[in-house]
Amino acid sequence: MSATLSTHVLDTETGRPAAGVRIELFRDAELVAAAQTDADGRIGTLAEVAPGAYRLVFHPPSPFFRRVELEVELAEGHYHVPLLVAPYSCTTYRGS
Fold first, then answer.
1. What is the CATH number of domain 3-92?
2. What is the spatial distance between Cα 49 and Cα 86, in angstroms, rounded to a whole number?
3. Mean pLDDT, rounded, for 63-73
4. Dist CA 57 CA 23 (whole Å)
5. Is the pLDDT of residue 10 over 80?
6. pLDDT at residue number 32
7. Contact partners, residue 4, CB within 8 Å, separation at least 6
8. Residue 34 contacts by C-beta under 8 Å, 6 or more apart in sequence?
9. What is the C-alpha separation between 20 and 89, in angstroms, rounded?
């Protein structure tokens, strides 16, 4: 049994994908995976992991948000977790 995780980052100030954004996945204090978004602001598969609790860390292109951290509980299956970021606001959701 495994869970897969993909993501993308959209710069809502410019209405464009955010390329080159570092994203890290931790389980407890252990770094499980890390990658940077491509030219389309996406990471197709950040990781394939065992189900459990993880911490997803985005380092967005924002003058205010130095990093955005999410704690997620992954069960078996695929998860897509995007980040929409502007200079002074951000939001995320579970995509499909």
1. 2.60.40.180
2. 30
3. 95
4. 6
5. yes
6. 97
7. 45, 47, 48, 49, 77, 78, 79
8. 22, 23, 24, 25
9. 19
Please count the residues of the chain: 96
pLDDT, tens digit (0-9, with 9 covering 90-100), for 33-53 = 999 999 999 999 999 999 999
Tokens of 87: 């200079």
Q: Tell me how far apart the terminal alpha carbons of the chain are, to the nearest angstrom.
A: 19
Joined tokens for residue 83? 């980040």
- Rounded alpha-carbon distances, angstroms, from residue 80 to 14, 64, 84, 87, 88: 22, 25, 13, 23, 23
